[in-house]
Every structure is written in C-alpha cells, then in structure tokens.
Amino acid sequence: MTTDMIRLGWSDFFEQHFEPFRQQDLIPARVAREDRGAYLVYYERGEVVAEVTGRFRHEVMSRSSFPAVGDWVAINVLPQEPKARIHAILPRRSSFSRKVVGGHTEEQIAAANVDIVFLVSGLDGDFNLRRIERYLTVAYDSGANPVIVLNKADLCADVSARVAEVESFAFGAAVHPVSAIENSGLDRLLPYLGIGKTVAILGSSGVGKSSLINSFLGRDRLAVSAVREDDSHGRHTTTHRELICLPQGGLVIDTPGIRELQLWTGEDSLQGSFQDIEDFAGQCKFNDCKHTHEPGCAVKSAIESGALPSARLDNYRKLQRELLHLEKKQAEKARMAGRGSRKKADRNDQTPR
Ligand code: GDP
Ligand code: ZN
C-alpha cells in the first residue's frame, strides 16, 4: 500500500475487496466528480476521466449501483488515450443516499465512503436545535461519524450555553464552536482531517460550508455565496472537483447532493435515532397505536411517568410529518417532470397567486 493511495483514503478493507480485480490487471481509483456519465477519478498516477464499461451498464440494475463521488472503483487506463474504463465498484463503507420518489422509488447515492460528517449550523439567527437533530439522524443513517460544528461563533453572545444545549441531545457526538471568518476554533477540527480521512460537510445554505472548506484549503478555492450568485458560469466549471484533497492530509466531499440535503431518508432512519420511542411503542396494546388516545399506550404512560421526555415524542412527530411532506413534494416533482410537453400549455392558464 503506497502513501499516495493512503492519502486518497485507501485501506485494508478496500485492499481485501480489490484482490479479484488485481488479478484481472485492473487498478483502484476514487471518484472525484461525475458529469453525465463521465467520471473524473484519482488514482496512483494522477487523474483520468473514466466511463463505465458496456458490460457494467448492462448488468447494473439500479441507480444506486452506479459510481458516486467517493466510491472506489476498479479501472483500466486505455493505452493510447488519456481515458479509463470502470469495471466495478468496491463495497461502500458508508453512503449518503436519497430516495428519489417517482414511478417507483429509487435510491440515489450522493456520497460514498465518508468517514466523518461535519454537521454545520450557524450560531446566528439560523440556529435551530431540531434541524441539528434531523441532520444527526441522517448522519447515523449513513454510517459516517457525526461531528457537530457550530459556525459563526463570532455572532453569538453565549456560545457555551448553545454548546451545552446541543450536547444535551447529541448522543455523545462532539460539538465544536468555530468561526470560519475569524479563523478561530478550527484547530479543533484538524484531528478529523488526518491523512486519508474523508469528511463530508452538511448544513443548510449560508451556514458557512464554503468558508470552512476555504479555511482548510487556506485560499479561496470555492466562491462563497455572495460571489457565487453573480457568477453566470456557475460553480461547476470543468476544473471543479467534488472530492477535494486538503493540505492537512484528509479529503473533503462537497457535492450538490450533499449540499442540498434536506430529509432524504425514509422511515427506516427514524428508527435508531428514536430507539427509545420505538422500544416503548413495542409495548403498546395495539400495534398500530398512534400514541394519542389509545388505551394501553406504553409511550403515553412512559411520558406520564417521566421515563420519556415529551419533547422527544414531539420531535419524533415533527420529523414524521416532515418526511411525509417531503415524499409528497418529491412525488409531485416527479409527476410534473413526467408531464413533459404539456407543461407549456399549462403555464398559459396559470392564475396569479
Ligand atoms: P455555505 O452556503 O454554507 O457554503 O455558506 P458560505 O460559506 O457561502 O457563507 C455564507 C455567508 O456566511 C457568507 O457571507 C460568509 O461570509 C458568512 N460566514 C461564513 N462563516 C462565517 C463566520 O464564521 N462568521 C460570520 N460572521 N460569517 C460567516
Ligand atoms: Zn402507543
């Protein structure tokens, strides 16, 4: 195992799974960007644009089986041209996925093989405990380790009170107040950015994700939003990478899918994060108990006895409602997209709001 490979995040786990491909004279590479079926990949000797083989395309059954940013793939570099073919994807150690609701529900991978995820919030007007809890849910669902980053500490009068608040429900995840603008507190994030560690940065628009990445890079690698909006060329120029090697030795994943992350996850992820509620619910008299007025409701009696804080149930409900809302929205979006040519006609008889 060479240091270059370790820097890209290679490990014993991948080495083991790569064995059969090595015998076919393939080499490992990591996906840094995807653009309409063309993948920019990093490998031991640099980077190259790769496409999946015809056979791969033929055999793949679902969207989630296509390479995603962060994936390790088995490639061969074509001898005559600077191009490569992707033959297979190695198993993912973690993945951030979203359900794409349409005719049938499909899973789409936004980022793979993330070790640590920075859940970024702003310590300004944006501060929202419930949103942090939601991001935690998504993080635990992915298999990556969450670290809570509270940015814009320079705008907050009582940072330690905020930190204590967040810590109280963070299930042991570390909480770090920082200021990307003032460059303070960032040293506490350095241990997560060690050699070969892959970090994804999650958070709503405007919390300072680009500013943080820029501080790590030590230069204006990504335009911050104020600039970005005026940039008619958009962010995704040909040189843009979504898997970025940091001078600290780690890698950061910054994909639009990760940026736009809202509530991708389905019902499954609610379990786990609300295991306490699930456990009580298992003891309710009726197995379709809504925990409202049903007789023999174990959740209600746990709240009455103080075994379960009622705020937990409130959060659980809000999260469920939001999931439902999101799925409806996605279904609606899919329906609109499917209408195709009729769209134009519809626009004419739109009534003003
Ligand atoms: P992103 O959308 O999450 O990538 O956020 P940006 O990095 O583009 O930052 C959004 C805005 O917040 C910009 O105007 C930044 O200058 C500002 N910002 C970022 N970090 C900080 C910080 O630590 N303190 C303050 N006061 N402003 C910040
Ligand atoms: Zn119940």
Explained architecture:
The chain has 353 residues and is of the alpha/beta class. The chain is built from 13 helices and 13 strands. The strands form three sheets. It has a six-stranded mixed beta sheet with strand order 10-9-8-11-13-12, covered by helices on one side. The chain has a five-stranded mixed beta barrel with strand order 1-2-3-5-4. A hairpin with a 2-residue loop joins strand 2 and strand 3. The radius of gyration is 23 Å and the shape is globular. The termini are far apart. The relative contact order is 0.11. The chain binds guanosine-5'-diphosphate (GDP) and zinc ion (ZN). Guanosine-5'-diphosphate binds next to helix 6 and helix 7. The site of guanosine-5'-diphosphate has 18 residues, from helix 6 and helix 7.
Produce the secondary structure layout.
Blueprint: H1 3-7, H2 12-22, E1 27-35, E2 38-43, E3 46-52, H3 54-59, E4 72-77, E5 83-89, E6 95-100, E7 106-112, E8 116-122, H4 129-142, E9 145-151, H5 159-167, E10 175-177, E11 198-202, H6 209-217, H7 225-228, E12 243-245, E13 251-253, H8 256-259, H9 267-273, H10 275-281, H11 298-305, H12 310-339, H13 342-348
Parallel strand pairs: 3-5, 8-9, 8-11, 9-10, 11-13
Antiparallel strand pairs: 1-2, 1-4, 2-3, 4-5, 6-7, 12-13
Helix pairs in contact: 4-9
The structure holds guanosine-5'-diphosphate and zinc ion.
Short description:
It contains 13 helices and 13 strands. Helix content is 34%, strand content 22%.
